[in-house]
Structure formats: C-alpha cells, structure tokens
Amino acid sequence: GDFYDFVEIDKDRLLVIIGDACGKGIPACLLMFMARSFIRGNIERYSTLNELMRDLNNNLYRDTSAERFITIACCVLNRRENTIEYVRAGHTELLLCLPAHNHRLRRIFTQGTALGLMPGDMVEEFETFTFSFNKEMSILLYTDGINEALNKNDEEFGFERLRDNFMSSCETRSSPQETIEKILRAVDMFVEDTPVSDDQTLVVIKHRDNFV
C-alpha cells in the first residue's frame, strides 16, 4: 500500500508525494491507485494543497468502503521562489535537517486527518506549512514501516534510530540515494531475520546549487 510519486506541475513547481494505504494486497493497491490517479489528473487546477486534500478526501470517501483510508504527505517544490509548501493527511511527520544550525533537526507536524475516513463536512482544514529551502538543507519523508519495523524481541526500530541515521547522512553530506541506502541497511541490521510485516518507503529531498 505504500507509494511515492513526482509530478511536474509546471516549469517551476514539482509535487512530491508519499502515501500509505491501509491494509494489504489488492484493496490497498486499488486505494493507492485511486489517490495517485486523482492527484495526477487534477493537480494543475488547484491553487492550494488544502483544496487538493479536501477534494481527494471527498473522492475517496464516496468511492471506497468505510474502513478504507490512506495517509499522505505532499511537498510542492517551487524552483523559482526557492520554497517548499508541505501538507500532511494523517501521515508521519516531515524531518528537516538544518546544516546552518549544526545540523539541527526539525520535526514538522501539520494538522490533517487521514483521507477517506469522513465526509467533507466533518473534515477540518488541512494545515499547510511553507518555508524557504536553503542550500544544503535535507528533507526526509517516510512511511511507518520504517520506524515501526520489529526485531525478534518485538522492539521497534523507532524514531531515535531513524533520526540518528538521517542526521549522520546530513553531516557527511551524503546524496539522497546514499541516505536512503544507509537507513534501509540500519533497519535490516536491526530486524535481522525477522520477517518484514509492512512496506518501507523513504523519500529524501536535498538542496543543491541547482535547487534539488
């Protein structure tokens, strides 16, 4: 049920999406496909991420059963203004590494419920957060299959291990691909031979001289 996508809105803006549909197998895949198709087919006509999330919620609530829902996080990267707009619908938080502050980490939680659970008139606004994306900043988006991965003692990998591996990659100025590989190796070493029970998805966005 995990998915990620990159959608070119126009020459200046890129939409980055990560999501996690409830359940497993075909039902989760169908829910993921519905969300992805709606976003790709309609993103150009929305001026705000709040409006996009509200209409996507209404679409999923109308066309899926009551127990089905999906969590999503979206970032709009604006190359011209050098900014990122972020929205979260029940998903894990955004992690932002700030190298200008000795690689300090910020956890960004915006308000927003998972999509497909409630009709539009019962859903509050999806809070958005916009910030300048400066040189050497790094962003991590992830699904809960990472931090909730279990070892043989039923211990979770947890946020602290995820944070430490991400920060270590920021300090060594690792590429997005190197950062992802480092975190996934750490998860694999932690769980050892324990079967993985959930999908694991990561998206890393890093500022370079040409923005991303």
Tally of helical segments: 5
Strand content: 25-35%
Number of strands: 9
Helix-and-strand structural type: alpha+beta
Report on the biggest sheet: 5 strands, antiparallel
Which regions are unreliable across 5 or more consecutive residues at pLDDT < 50? none
Gap from first CA to last CA = 27 Å
Q: What is the element string, with H for helices and E for strands?
A: EEHHEEEEEEHHHE
Strand line-up in the sheet with most strands: 1-2-3-4-7
Q: Give me the Rg, rounded.
A: 17 Å
Rounded average pLDDT:
91
Approximate helicity band: 25-40%
Tertiary shape: globular
Descriptive notes:
The chain is α+β, with helices and mostly antiparallel strands and 212 residues long. The chain is built from five helices and nine strands, in the order E-E-H-H-E-E-E-E-E-E-H-H-H-E. The strands form two sheets. The chain has a five-stranded antiparallel β-sheet with strand order 1-2-3-4-7. A four-stranded antiparallel β-sheet has the order 6-5-8-9. A hairpin with a 4-residue loop joins strand 3 and strand 4. Helix 1 packs across helix 2 and helix 4 packs antiparallel against helix 5.
Task: Give the helix/strand layout.
Layout lengths: L1 E7 L4 E9 L3 H18 L6 H15 L6 E9 L4 E7 L4 E5 L5 E5 L19 E5 L5 E5 L1 H4 L10 H14 L4 H16 L10 E5 L6
Antiparallel strand pairs: 1-2, 2-3, 3-4, 4-7, 5-6, 5-8, 8-9
Q: Any key phrases for this structure?
A:
212 residues; alpha+beta; five-stranded antiparallel β-sheet; 5 helices; 9 strands
